[in-house]
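Researcher: Next entry in the queue.
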Amino acid sequence: MRILAVSGSLRDQSYNSALARAAAELAPAGVEVDLYDRLGEIPYYDADLDVDGEEAPGAVQDFRDRIAAADALLFVTPEYNGSVSGVLKNAIDWASRPPGGGAALWGKTAAVAGATTGQYGAIWAQQDLRRILGIAGARVVEGELPVARAQNAFDEAGRLRDPLLAERLRAHLESLMHEAAPVPVAA
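Model: Structure for this entry, 187 residues:
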């Protein structure tokens, strides 16, 4: 199974990117977590650049292709002004086009998580992200993974140091895998 992990932060020392890397390290056997690192290259959404029959800008096409190749998605969001980052929302706008069955996000199973230095762990951003992804056509699994006071959850190298949080992240990934697994067809 392949999970595409998308951090909604561009910052070099991002706690959300560190959480996405931790997901890759903690993934169960047989699960590959692909870390998406081109979010800053995606241009602002412009319908004039997204015309049927014409190729989308390079970073957009790469994002759409990597979503299409993934079995499931993990979006890790910071919280800015009580919601998701603008760059993450922009990327989702691109991945939600064309509307309906042709969009990269359509029918994809997704989970959300978020880290902040505050006491709430990006819960508002995660709630907004769940709504945005659902409207875009993704199947969003139940539950969030809030990481409050992220500066204490990671060491100086960006590695997860909280064993309880590691266990919660592992369980979150297992839930995502379970929901994304194909349903066997009865003979």
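Model: The chain has one domain: 2-180.
Researcher: Noted, moving on.
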